[in-house]
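Hi again,

Forgot to attach this to my earlier email, sorry! This is the prediction with zinc ion bound. I've pasted everything inline since the attachment limit keeps bouncing my files.
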Amino acid sequence: MTIACCACEKARTVHLYNFARVIDLRQLPKAELHVHVEGTFEPELIFTIAERNGIDPGYASVDALRAAYNFTDLQSFLNVYYAGMRVLRTERDYYDLATAYLERAAAQGVRHAEIFFDPQAHTDRGVPFATVVAGLTGALEAARERLRISAHLILCFLRDLSAESAMATLEVAIPYRNRIIAIGLDSAEVGNPPSKFATVFDRARAEGFLTVAHAGEEGPPEYVWEALDLLHAARIDHGVRSLEDPQLVERLRRQRIPLTVCPFSNVKLHVVADLAHHPLKRMLDAGLLATVNSDDPAYFGGYVADNFAGVVAALGLSDSDVIALAKNSFEASFVDDAKKRVHINEIDHFTAATSS
Ligand code: HPA
Ligand code: ZN
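Structure tokens for the complex follow:
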């Protein structure tokens, strides 16, 4: 078996990935629908931007920072994640952050990305909303031509903050409606159910935003029901705990509600014991519209093609599983139907060329 390390070169976890399979997982066209831009903040870039802004990064070296990436659950990760993004201050910082992600994503076969950002984690530190959005959208626009990757932004509310804070953030975001395709919900899940944000999401939909929500990561299947019924989420982010509820699985299957699954994240945050026990294959076999994503790749050991390679190796996914996952990623995206067809045709051409 070919041994190749994932995007996390150097001294991080070494994954045994076979990128020499018939389907080259890095070349396979795909969409990424669950990635937090702040979770793509690599330690080297944290140090570069900290120095540029005259801010103490809090660790003596890049290696010392990376050594702190040992998580026991979602909250233990969030503590490190929010600490890392403290050094972001200027439009250029946000531009550099998103550009670094888009370059890595393009190198992993991503043709389209729908990227979360957490404005409250920036505005609460005094960074204007306009600065964050200008930096991120500038990077997305530049990548469209240079990297041939399209992208949308999804604004996430921090669910451990109040519904009032979310509503105030929505008010600020409304003038940027043409730059933000959807509203999402992330951060500490347990104890912060979707119902807490029903009124804010009603308002967001009335203003023309699509909606998605993290649910069923650490929280119970009831939170997935609430995300669907109260927030009218068009996709469920994570949703792995849905499998505990057969009626919920049946609804997700029947309504073809996409689940943006993040295998490395689930292992690193102890949602599942290891990749070999990841429910992705069971989700596919149950007829669910599951997709593979990286979530917070700078923290969890790999970008999206690395996640594909990890589950292929650990779960023995077939080529048809892999192709279904890639097609699902476009079907589940917010691009229009004509673009979906173009991307799915590209997968068919790619697989035909690979197998001939
Ligand atoms: N779950 C919830 N909130 C998050 C995550 C996650 O995996 N990553 C960044 N914010
Ligand atoms: Zn997430």
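The CA atoms of residues 294 and 304 lie 5 Å apart. The first helix runs from residue 43 to 52.

That should be everything now.

G.
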